[in-house]
Design brief:
Blueprint: E1 2-9, H1 12-19, E2 25-30, H2 54-71, E3 72-82, E4 85-87, E5 94-95, E6 100-102, E7 116-124, E8 140-147, E9 181-183, H3 203-213, E10 219-222, H4 229-236, E11 240-244, H5 248-271, E12 281-288
Parallel strand pairs: 1-11, 1-12, 2-3, 2-10, 7-9, 10-11
Antiparallel strand pairs: 3-8, 4-5, 4-6, 7-8
Length: about 290
């Protein structure tokens, strides 16, 4: 079985319209830019461009959702990561830390009647830094899990069950449902996973979504590939993956991560040959505009 990974170094809206067929994607996992006008603070943020007007930003999100609906299969899922932001009194200036808090539920304006919201998952984490002492420090982001059908979509709970918190005899022997609040630590500066990107998914986070909503050999799409975590996890879990990333430095970083992942997979298969049922050839193809 051949597993392919295609990384397009171009704008995702342009690329999806040109390269991705209707109803060809099993699972979307993505995190659009937050549009909080983040200034470069270190080597991880020097290439961070995120300064559209709010009207233009929401217009791009609307276009994105329309494209994701087009390319996703009827039994597929779309996972979109967004975070709350702060607005000034005129609701024009957007920041990450001050003003009036607005959760990202506004994206539901673009999905109503087209997608079904199955869960609004809360991703909870801890970080050491602090910003203001006039409010509680935010330690969460949202994952919107959408499906195209109210029923008959892929979901494999047994693949992602967790250890029960109680010893109740009524507990499922296979483990507990993870619920819709996930505590998964951020990828921090000293983390083994840490690489060249300011907003990097933890592999454990992507792995749970991918195992829960797709099968081996399915095709995964990440329109904002960024640090490359979605593609790396897809490689480890034997999924095909398509990613779009406009920043060429992030593309090079993903290529490096994929090579390292391939090395570890090859070493594992070499030492566990009797347990391998299928010989899978992984390819990474980088397509530039």
């Amino acid at each position: 079985m051949l597993i392919t990974h295609k990384l397009y170094n171009m704008d995702c809206l342009e690329g999806m319209r040109k390269y991705i067929e209707d109803s060809s994607i099993d699972l979307v996992i993505t995190s659009p830019p937050y549009n909080i006008k983040l200034k470069a603070r270190n080597e991880y943020t020097k290439n961070y461009m995120d300064n559209l007007s709010e009207e233009a930003y929401r217009g791009k999100i609307k276009e994105l959702i329309e494209e994701l609906i087009r390319v996703t299969k009827d039994d597929g899922s779309i996972w979109i990561n967004m975070k709350s932001r702060y607005f000034n009194e005129e609701r024009k200036v957007v920041t990450a830390t001050y003003g009036s808090l607005e959760p990202p539920t506004w994206i539901l304006e673009y999905t109503w009647g087209k997608l079904y919201l199955k869960n609004l998952v809360i991703w909870n984490y801890d970080i050491n830094s602090d910003t203001k002492n006039n409010k509680f420090h935010p330690r969460y982001e949202f994952f919107f899990w959408f499906t195209k059908k109210a029923k008959d979509y892929k979901f494999f709970l047994d693949e992602i069950r967790v250890i029960p918190k109680t010893r109740d005899k009524r507990n499922n022997p296979k483990g507990a449902n993870p619920t819709d609040v996930w505590y998964i630590p951020l990828v921090k500066g000293n983390s083994r996973e840490r690489n060249f990107h300011p907003a990097q998914y933890p592999e454990k986070l992507v792995e749970r979504i991918m195992k829960g909503c797709s099968e081996e050999y399915d095709t995964i799409l990440d329109p904002f590939l960024g640090s490359g975590t979605t593609m790396v996890v897809a490689k480890k879990l034997n999924r095909n993956c398509i990613g779009f990333e406009i920043n060429s430095e992030y593309v090079k970083n993903t290529e490096k991560r994929m090579n390292l992942a391939q090395k570890s997979i090859t070493e594992f298969r070499t030492s566990n040959t009797p347990t391998i049922k299928n010989v899978i050839v992984n390819q990474l193809e980088i397509i530039k505009r």
